[in-house]
Amino acid sequence: MSLALIARSEARTEARLDLASAVMREVPSGERNLIVQLLARTFVDTYAHSAAAGSPAQLVDWVDRMCDAHADTPAVTKLFRGACRSLDDFFAAQGVAERERKPLRSVEDSLREVLQKPRTTRAAAREHVDEVDAAVSGMLARLEGADPLTAEHSRSVSSWCGRLARRLSLSEKETTYVARAGMIHDVGKVTTPPSILQAPRKLTEAEWVTMREHTTYGEQIILEDERLGEFSLIVRAHHERIDGHGYPDGRERDEVPLAARIVTVADCFNAMIGRRPYRPAMAPSDALAQLQLHTGSQFDPEIVAAMHEVVLQR
Ligand SMILES: [Fe+2]
Ligand SMILES: [Fe+2]
């Protein structure tokens, strides 16, 4: 049997099973569970397909995906680490010429790179999620202590952000990220004097200057907690406008991260439909009309459209 034969689909099942057994011997016997057995067989099949297609990348991609999916099973890495070598030994024992076995070496080099990539185990991912959740809750508690109304607003903004993200077909992970960003977007307001935050009137220009600083103070507060570092830019940028006339940096269009553009729409909508000491709550339809009025200048049109759909449940 040669490499060319095993690469062809008519290669006998027994031959592939022999190869899979050779591959599996790389794993200590106590760790050869069902997953390892299945992956050893699939490795041989995938190797055969990728060799037949002349595309080693197929095999390397597959191994990469399997390493991610089975990050919790160290035996899987052991299996792949020795897989090419065991195939090579197997074919050598069958008398397959060195020249014909050469392609296996280059695949082995690519696999070695893939196997060195750090993987996140499910336990580590869960732990990270818990840590971020705890940090977000901590920030919200600080806000609650400083200004309960802002904390309530933040919870609502977070909920709108989640609905917007889903409507925009973002992944589950991205949706969680945007919802968390909504929860902590105004954390910088813990530094804003209550006399300004709770002023029962429109603010003076000087007071507005102080009020606007909640974006940059917010960023600093977020950066003090390494668990929340990935949110710092969103907190800083949630009052930017896509026409570049927002603050604090005057970023425009795509310079404003998508998550910040989502938070902006959710934030403004929620502020409008909420009661303020100096004005009554606006009807949701009027708030939507206001978003529409400023779409393309203050707001991202796609997100405003999504907000219409979310609110009108279309
Ligand atoms: Fe804000
Ligand atoms: Fe806000």
Describe what you observe in this structure.
The chain has two domains: 3-115; 122-312, Hypothetical protein af1432 (Orthogonal Bundle), CATH 1.10.3210.10. With 314 residues, the protein is mostly helical. The mean pLDDT is 90. The chain starts with a helix and ends with a helix. Helix 3 (34-52) packs antiparallel against helix 4 (56-69), helix 7 crosses helix 8 and helix 9 (172-184) packs across helix 14 (258-273). The protein has helices spanning 3-7, 13-24, 34-52, 56-69, 74-93, 98-115, 122-146, 148-167, 172-184, 194-197, 205-212, 214-223, 232-237, 258-273, 284-293, 301-312. It is 68% helix and 0% strand. The protein binds fe (ii) ion (2 copies). One fe (ii) ion binds at residues 185-186, 214, 238-239. The site of one fe (ii) ion (FE2) has 5 residues, from loops.
What is the structure about, briefly put?
With 314 residues, the protein is mainly α. The chain is 68% helix and 0% strand.
Number of strands: 0
Averaging pLDDT over every residue, what do you get? 90
The proportion of residues in beta strands is under 5%
Listed once per kind, the bound small molecules are: fe (ii) ion
Question: What are the secondary-structure elements, in order, as H or E?
Answer: HHHHHHHHHHHHHHHH
Q: How many distinct domains?
A: 2
Superfamily (CATH H level) name of the largest domain: Hypothetical protein af1432
User: How would you characterize the largest beta sheet?
Assistant: none
Structural class call reads: mainly alpha
Distance between the termini: 62 Å
Oligomeric category: single chain
**Low-confidence stretches at least 5 residues in length (pLDDT < 50)?**
none
Q: Shape, please?
A: elongated
Specify the helix fraction band: 55-70%
The CATH topology of the largest domain is: Hypothetical protein af1432
Radius of gyration: 28 Å
- How many DSSP H or I helices? 16
What's the CATH class of the largest domain, please? Answer: Mainly Alpha
From the coordinates shown, what is the CATH architecture of the largest domain? Orthogonal Bundle
